Amino acid sequence: MTTRMVLVPGFWLGAWAWNEVIPALNGDIDAVAVDLPGQDGKRGEAPAQVSLADQVAAIERALEAEPADRRILVVHSGSASPGTMLLDKRPELVDHIVFVDTAPPVDGLAFNADATSDATLDEMLANEQEQYAFRDLTDEQLERFKQRATVQPKSLVTEAVTLTNDARHNVPVTVICSCYTAEQFQDFADQGIPYLAALNDYESVHYIDLPTGHWPMWSKPAELAALLNEVAVDE
């Protein structure tokens, strides 16, 4: 059986974010990381005017690029939005979806509908309430992140997710819980918190704890790869 695994980076990140994970994946996994439109430039460049549909198309191309018996989609952080829209558009194209410290959005949700400017990593770094997200990153990793982080276009931050196909709920889901525990993820979903409430709509959801910060692909790449390997062999 051939397995194609498409890894999608979150805000401010390009395909390079998965460089430490891919070598630790099983050799029989055809793994590819995606550069999402609007996040594929260099730090300081003016971002392109892009839409979530543009990012959905990039994920779709990656999933279809090579024939495979099984396709696994791995989305991190903000890429849950285009990843879930892809699932809505082409549920038959994904056999399993993994949300890395994130969750599928509900229809109509925007990351920040009131944003008036592009989102930058510098703003997050300056927010003391967000410091837990950087837990376990070395100084070298954080510096590399700062140097390579792109600007997140406002168009992607303010655009609402559009979902119409309930067939997406039939695709098995794994949630890798890093900043918060699996118990907290489920509790927040049960409370109806918009960023997590949709988890209750999926037929099969498996929660896994991987305690660290928001970027386990750097802070715990071997452990994250091991969990993805388990998903790849799970029937």
Provide an overview of this structure.
This protein is α/β, with parallel strands linked by helices. It is built from eight helices and six strands, in the order E-E-H-E-H-E-H-H-H-E-H-E-H-H. It has a six-stranded parallel β-sheet with strand order 2-1-3-4-5-6, with helices on both faces. Helix 1 packs across helix 2.
Task: Please outline what is shown here.
The chain is built from 8 helices and 6 strands, in the order E-E-H-E-H-E-H-H-H-E-H-E-H-H.
User: Which structural category fits the helices and strands?
Assistant: alpha/beta
Would you identify the regions where 5 or more consecutive residues have pLDDT less than 50?
none
Helix content: 25-40%
What's the order of the H and E elements? EEHEHEHHHEHEHH
Q: Per DSSP, what share of the residues sits in E-state strands of 2 or more residues?
A: 5-15%
What's the total helix number?
A: 8
User: Largest beta sheet, briefly?
Assistant: 6 strands, parallel
Q: How would you write the strand order of the largest sheet? A: 2-1-3-4-5-6
Kindly state the number of beta strands. Answer: 6
What is the residue-averaged pLDDT? 93
Radius of gyration: 16 Å
**N-to-C span:** 11 Å
What's the shape? globular
